[in-house]
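User: Thanks for the earlier help. One more: non-specific serine/threonine protein kinase. Can you show the sequence and predicted structure together?

Assistant: Of course, both are below.
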Amino acid sequence: MIYSALLGLLQTNVFAPPSKLYNHPNSFFHTRQVSSLASGTSNNTKNFVQLKCIRVVKGAVPAYLVRAWEEFKKNHGSENDHPRIFPRKQQWIVLESTVCGQPLENAMPACSLARLSVFCQTALGLAVAEQRLAFEHRDLHWGNVLIADSPSSPAATSTCPYSSSSCPRLPVSRLLDVEYQPPPGPLTNIIDFTLSRMNHADAPLFIDLSRDEELFTGVGDHQFDIYREMRKELGDDWSLFRPKTNVFWLHYLAEKLKSTASLHCSPREKQHRESRLLIGRLEGQLRQPNVYASASDFVCKHSFFASLRRTTLLDDPSDKFAEISLES
């Protein structure tokens, strides 16, 4: 049976059938498994999209969804197939998920404190998934990192919403029985597990990317270099668990957070200046080869994350960075 996917939030009339090579039921199983990471004793995180339900349906794509797809392609572009190419008796797997916000590439926070929080939440999510599922994302570009809307626009107010003592705390992540409180920022969720790898019942679930030579020929962005770096790390055996690939993507993310134009958004200049410096330092450290073997290794070893352990936090979330060391 050939499966195609109707992905997205039906309530927003947005969907995206994937390219033919990756029409694989494993990606839906991956989504269900990472949703389970929100609960657990020793390792848990709420930084993955939460799956509400999966349905198998049959028939032509409704006209209103076709129009929505065409409008999306017109405004944003798409490499996916037009939904009209599929037969009227096509079967689809429909995923309904929680609303997670906007892709980072379209909604980069102006606030450096918020950017640091996005990085922290992503790293913690990957670290927990490594421990629970032997997970590698393998496609964590900034379109697959979603951030919730900020309480208010930092550029339009004199006070950064994330510096305020009234800013709600983000959900904690627990890694190897240690709880980490992310710094203030927008809730961040990781999505799209089409290329991901994980274990289930002691067997790997993965896509054999060696069949997609075109994936490794892209140029013009660090994203395309990472596909080639992953191939080298894995020796083109995509069944292997090599969590260093998650470190490659964390470096990519830190680079995006560092290099994208930023705005000063708060009179608390010291806090935001130190956040900018820390993002730059993290990017430089992740760029070094053979320092961190995995996302969990990075979280457990780096002093930044040590300062976020629940036992070391101050009561006021607006003062989280009072004692953060910029040293590794």
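User: Great, one quick takeaway?

Assistant: Strands lie at 4-6, 51-58, 91-97, 102-103, 145-147, 173-175, 178-180, 188-190, 198-200, 203-205.
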